[in-house]
Design a protein that fits this description.
With 311 residues, the protein is an alpha+beta fold. It has 11 helices and 9 strands. The strands form 4 sheets. A 3-stranded antiparallel sheet has the order 3-5-4.
Length: 311
């Protein structure tokens, strides 16, 4: 926005200096951000036409999304709904699981716990869970900090035991901080939050994050995983919180410094990873279940070719 704002200001200055008789109209003020009420179904909308969008291009997009078995699709502009569609039997009230996107909820909840003084990202995990939460040698286990779980650099074996997070499955692969590997062990951060606060993770998450921004939903244990289920609008609410760097309207839910750290490269191995956030626009990236470093941006066409085998 800065180059545009500068150009507008320069043109206005030139206009004023060229003739004292010239009357300039005040620059239009940007539309204020909107946050929907915490309860109820009220949510302001805008039309695509009012934004000058090509409405004829929307239907082919919706057809493609339905063809690809999408459940829902939303676009917000300044917090207002411009597009909201549901497909394949899904509705506005149907819950669906966040899958790996739920990691961002865990990271944000940890950030709130840290800002309340219960934990620090530099603390050893064993300070909260006790020793023996892995089957690693004690000296290696004690290398693992909360930050290592946030950044996927715990050094725990990521392939041999799948998503299992019981101690017998958490075996040594490398020293913490020396290897990036996508692993389900991040869920131990939820146990850290519970131990540090004296509340169940669900209770703390609901009171400090979910209810503060009007989300609905719940964490559900599924095999070795714990995944979050909610409506599409609840996910959109979290998107608004992220867009505003942890702030909901006038209330700070998690401080902006943590959100900055979470969405910035967090280690020197995988440029495209923050605190349980994937980061686009980096020059290189790693993918789950491989130690190879790919060139380019993680969500580029090249990346999709690597992931899905396109040629």
């Amino acid at each position: 926005m800065r180059p545009i704002s500068f150009l507008i200001g320069l043109l206005a200055l030139l206009s004023c200096s060229s003739s004292s008789d010239t009357t300039t109209s005040p620059e239009p003020q940007p539309e204020a951000a909107y946050f929907p009420p915490l309860t109820g179904t009220e949510w302001e909308t805008k039309t695509a036409a009012s934004l000058g969008w090509d409405e004829t291009a929307l239907q082919p997009l919706l057809d493609y999304l339905e063809l690809k078995h999408s459940k829902s699709f939303m676009i917000l502009v300044n917090g207002r709904i411009v597009v909201e569609h549901y497909f394949n039997g899904h509705t506005a009230t149907s819950p669906w699981y966040w899958a790996s996107a739920g990691k961002t909820l865990t990271a944000t909840t940890f950030g709130i716990t840290e800002q309340e003084g219960f934990v620090s990202r530099g603390d050893r995990v064993s300070e909260y869970l006790g020793t023996g939460w892995t089957s690693m040698p004690l000296a290696k286990e004690n290398l693992i900090t909360n930050r290592h779980l946030l950044t996927m650099t715990s050094g725990i074996e990521d392939l041999a035991n799948g998503d299992c997070v019981t101690p017998d499955c958490l075996t040594y692969k490398a020293d913490a901080g020396t290897r990036w590997a996508y692993h389900n062990v991040f869920v131990k951060l939820q146990d850290v939050v519970a131990e540090a606060t004296g509340m169940s993770y669900n209770e703390y998450f609901n009171s400090r994050l979910r209810d503060k921004i009007g989300m609905t939903g719940t964490w559900v244990v599924s095999g070795d995983n714990i995944v979050y289920w909610s409506t599409t609008r609840s996910m959109a609410r979290f998107g608004l919180l992220a867009l505003h760097q942890g702030k909901w309207d006038t209330q700070t839910i998690v401080n902006s410094s943590f959100f900055h750290d979470a969405t910035t490269t967090s280690q020197n191995i995988n440029e495209a990873y923050g605190f349980l956030w994937w980061l686009n626009g980096k020059s290189t990236y790693h993918l789950p279940q491989t130690q190879y470093e790919f060139a380019g941006s993680v969500y580029s066409i090249r990346a999709f070719r690597h992931v899905y085998g396109f040629r």
